Amino acid sequence: MLRALLIGRFQPFHYGHLEIVKRILSEVDELIIGIGSAQASHTLDNPFTAGERILMIAKTLQAEGIPGDRYYIIPIPDVWNNAIWVDHVKSLTPPFQRVYTNNPLAQRLFREKGFEVKPLPLINRTRFSGTEIRAKMLRDESWRELVPPKVAEVIDMVKGVERLKDVSKSDKLSYLEPGSVPP
């Protein structure tokens, strides 16, 4: 049995994430979906709580007909010490043999601990980007076609766009201009 790990912030979970999850599940028996920065919420970069992100993912995977025994969704709070980060992740998750990530530091840290590491395919990264989806929400532009319907339902339920607009009043907005690059 091959169990793998995928960590992301999923702010919000979008069609690019869904495609990655499906591709990974075609290669492994079970997938641990780690909700990174689980302690963060109510900011421009992390507007949704870990619980809300879990709902987005679980409802979407269920709607896609992916059996619940194929995945685990685990919140993973940040620790600010790279030397212990992999052990921290391991302490919160079921055992796994493979890690999917494109982050060079995460790749190195997991390899140093003996894990097989595979890169992720980038699925239309310019279109499917949490940063761009959040910016579209703030600019009152169309964003719903970029996320699965169940994700939009959760965002509506928690008044996520309103929350994002509220927290934007105290944060920098420079990267929200169309075509600009986030800091």
UniProtKB/TrEMBL annotation:
Catalytic activity: beta-nicotinamide D-ribonucleotide + ATP + H(+) = diphosphate + NAD(+)
Keywords, sorted A to Z: ATP-binding, Cytoplasm, NAD, Nucleotide-binding, Nucleotidyltransferase, Pyridine nucleotide biosynthesis, Transferase
Domain Cytidyltransferase-like: 6-135
Recorded metabolic or biological pathway in which this protein acts: Cofactor biosynthesis; NAD(+) biosynthesis; NAD(+) from nicotinamide D-ribonucleotide: step 1/1
GO cellular component: cytoplasm
InterPro entries hit by this protein: Cyt_trans-like, NMN_Atrans_arc, Rossmann-like_a/b/a_fold
UniProt enzyme class: transferase
Transmembrane segments: none
Annotated GO biological process: NAD+ biosynthetic process
Localization per Swiss-Prot or TrEMBL: Cytoplasm
Highest taxon in the source lineage: Archaea
Gene Ontology MF: a single term: nicotinamide-nucleotide adenylyltransferase activity
Family stated for the protein in its record: Belongs to the archaeal NMN adenylyltransferase family.
Matches recorded under NCBIfam families: arch_NMN_Atrans, cyt_tran_rel, PRK01153.1
Name of this chain's protein: Nicotinamide-nucleotide adenylyltransferase
Organism: Thermoproteota archaeon
Organism lineage: Archaea, Thermoproteota
